[in-house]
Amino acid sequence: MNYKLKLYTLIIYYYYFNSLNGDWGLGIGDWGLGIGDWAQSPIPNPQSPIPNPQFHSKKYQTNKIIKLFKKIIIKYIYLKMTEKDILEKEKTILPSDEEVQKLFSKSKNLAIQSFSTISDPSKITPLTPEIMSRQATMNIGTIGHVAHGKTTLVRAISGIQTTKHKIEKERNITYYLGYANAKLYKCPKCPDLDAYKAYGSGMEDSPKCETCGEKLELLRHISFVDCPGHDILMATMLNGASVMDAALLLIAANMECPQPQTREHLAAVENMDLENIIIVQNKIDLIKEDAAKENYNQIKAFAKGTKAAKSPIIPISAQYKYNIEAVIYYLCNLPIPKRDFVSPPRFIVIRSFDINKPGTEAENLQGGVVGGTLVRGIIRLGEIVEIKPGIISKNEEGKYIVQNLYSRIVSLKTETNDLLYAVPGGLIGVGLKVDPFLTSKSKLNGRILGHPGKLPDIYASIVVKTHLMSRYVGTKGADKNSSHVGEIKFKEVLLINVGSTSIASEVVDISGENRDVVKFRLSPPACAEIGETVAFSRKLGHSWRLIGWGKVLEGGETI
Ligand SMILES: Nc1nc2c(ncn2[C@@H]2O[C@H](COP(=O)(O)OP(=O)(O)OP(=O)(O)O)[C@@H](O)[C@H]2O)c(=O)[nH]1
Ligand SMILES: [Mg+2]
Ligand SMILES: [Zn+2]
Q1: Structurally, what CATH architecture does the domain formed by 3-93+342-450 represent?
Q2: Does the domain formed by 458-555 have CATH 3.40.50.970?
Q3: Which ligand is closest to the CA of 163, given by its number?
């Protein structure tokens, strides 16, 4: 860029990205979610039930023009800027003591966080009280066949209904990954399982026992990753599996075991090297004792030879909250995940949205928000972060080009709890000083966020050492010969789950002695780490079925 153009670009950039509370950012018309519930809510609802009252109004038309204008600015100015230009302007500014005090003044019953606690990251654990007071530090997946009671169990423990979309409510089916936090406590006085209690994420750390009045001890702060069980949503389940520390496998006692997604979900978490699986035999209110025993034997036979062979099998009724204390007990006794708090942070973006309600006045507008989870490291309020790959587009020759995004973290939240810093575990909402246009409508889903220059490369292709399952475990006829998976074929398109994103990928090369080293072209390109486990699925009819998994050996072309 020549000098004049560069100067001009910087001036426009300066006004554009400083205008979030000024005139430029006004009234972006996306149907974002209300502040307060954003961290818990699934991906923004494109079919919001709220009618758009301003559709024909002047303001709406103005917004449309502003949106177009922003697209032009992003395409012709932001995408042309270099990383150096942007980083010269953006600097990490950690909050002052006064700002920290103000941040925590709203939630006095929770621990006050301070940067000094994390100054030596090798000293912190998922049980550090100051951390566990505000954020979940373990992710528990709920997996299993459709309608076996995953969402009902999450609600029974956390009090949160994870299905929030209109389509989910209408059809009584989970479509999107749902998140809900729960604090798990033990009463020192109440006997046996009665001692185990669960409350929401905002509950104080030592509440009084409702039964005996004794002070409860906070044992764990967990986040449920509530997966869909429907067979067409397997890719979504796999995205959730990549962040689980342990899983609850729900099996409905009133049905023969195993059902197709009971098998497929268990295979998926086994492939992701998940060791801790708790089996929950649900809906026991619907059957007699003999039938429950017979079902128990079926579960035992099914679990034999899998990583769940030694798992406890807990009979419950999620609907009637029967024996939920036993589930809490087992959750409290899971091993503490080994975390890497020291390495540079790696945050997987699962959702991205505009939290401003339509028609928000200009002075009240907030920047963009991404929701996701940290797989390692720590992010701090006020820090500059990079999002990679940021904006993906194609050039005139049809080749992918990428402009990574850089921004300052202006807020950190999980459910309703404010945070000064975030560590691995739970769904974290990161408020950024970027225009909400950039984060609206899930635009950044599947991206990685971390410190500038410290994130993995973006690859247009990856080479994977593959392991195929012999059969399709997720279909009804899985016992028949016709359900053999067979080989991966040259030029076939498989769905690869890398981190929390699913990418339809063409097989462009097959090599290796056992023809198990496969090169996939990723479209669009994505960040991948060498050694990372990926799962892949093949399309059968209208849906993707899990066929195997593998480790990334090397990246192909970088972008
Ligand atoms: N009788 C009885 N019904 C239950 C129980 N648990 C769940 N249900 C019912 O089973 C249906 C499915 O429950 P969900 O919790 O939505 O099942 P799910 O596994 O989350 O379903 P997907 O996420 O769509 O796979 C609902 O109508 C629940 O009310 C239970 O313990 N007893
Ligand atoms: Mg559900
Ligand atoms: Zn008690």
Answers
A1: Beta Barrel (2.40)
A2: no
A3: 2
